[in-house]
Automatic annotation (TrEMBL):
Catalytic activity: sn-glycerol 1-phosphate + (2E,6E,10E)-geranylgeranyl diphosphate = sn-3-O-(geranylgeranyl)glycerol 1-phosphate + diphosphate
Positions bound to Mg(2+): D23, S51
Molecular function via GO: magnesium ion binding; phosphoglycerol geranylgeranyltransferase activity
Binding site for sn-glycerol 1-phosphate: Y171, L172, E173, A174, G175, S176, G177, G202, G203, G224, T225
GO biological process annotation, one example: glycerophospholipid biosynthetic process
Pfam family, one: PcrB
GO CC annotation terms, alphabetical: cytoplasm
Protein name per its UniProtKB record: Geranylgeranylglyceryl phosphate synthase
EC number: 2.5.1.41
Cofactor(s) listed in the protein's UniProt record: Mg(2+)
Length: 234
């Protein structure tokens, strides 16, 4: 079974998934053992990626992660340099909330030669940036304007346009370190109209926020910062 199929199956069975995001820029090998011991037992995936990562660093980090845990490692790349053959799968992201061709298609085209040298499973993913109450690095780096949380219909339409154009997953992103995560209302509305799994991430720092996202319909939640700095609240 492929990694996408596993996510689809879990979504179908309403089994909630949890990805812990590792930003290769912030990963410290010396603290890795402790970090992996602290992971919640229900962690289902490790995502690896960041907005700006030094070339070659992703590969080192993926290899290190593989020595500490058996969870599937899925790349969540901020640019075409962050592709490593040591990972298991790749979220082939297109920033469909933005209107910057660089992140709609240019980075994707530039990643192809690298991808062809790997056996990564490619998962077409529509990436939707939503205002998280502060300017996040994804907003800066992508030079795109996030969709306002109140524009629920526009968010739903963007997600549906993604589904119609063949994306297998939709990722609702408030940005790493967002002040406010994607609201349950948005998740609910998107989930209601879509028939592909929905990923939610950005600014989730507590069990309560995690549960609210799940209850609203998130199939997979991504948490980075709160686990990275040990501030996640039970
Ligand atoms: C960012 O959605 C992820 O791309 C996770 O965000 O670091 O705020 O958990 P946080």
């Amino acid at each position: 079974q492929g990694y996408l199929e596993e996510i689809q199956q879990a979504a179908y069975e309403n089994r909630k998934l949890l990805a812990v995001l590792i930003d290769p820029d912030k990963f410290e090998e010396g603290k890795a053992s402790y970090f992996f011991q602290q992971l919640p037992p229900n962690t289902s995936h490790i995502f690896v990626g960041g907005s700006t990562v030094e070339e070659g660093r992703t590969c080192e980090v993926v290899k290190a992660v593989k020595t500490f845990c058996d969870l599937p490692v899925i790349l969540f790349p901020g640019d075409h340099n962050q592709i490593s053959s040591h990972a298991d799968a790749l979220l082939f992201l297109s920033l469909i909330s933005g209107r910057n061709p660089e992140f709609l298609i240019e980075q994707q085209v530039r990643s192809v030669e690298r991808i062809r040298k790997t056996e990564l499973e490619i998962i077409p993913t529509g990436y939707i940036l939503i205002d998280g109450g502060r300017e996040t690095s994804v907003q800066k780096v992508s030079n795109t304007i996030p969709l306002a949380q109140k524009d629920i219909q526009q968010i739903v339409n963007t997600a549906l346009a993604g589904q119609y154009s063949g994306k297998e997953l939709i990722y609702l992103e408030a940005g790493s370190g967002a002040k406010m995560p994607v609201s349950p209302e948005i998740i609910k509305a998107v989930k209601k109209d879509l028939n592909i799994p929905v990923i939610v991430g950005g600014g989730i720092r507590s069990t309560e926020q995690l549960q609210l996202s799940y209850e609203a319909g998130a199939d997979l939640v991504v948490i980075g910062t709160a686990f990275e700095n040990g501030s996640f609240r039970d």
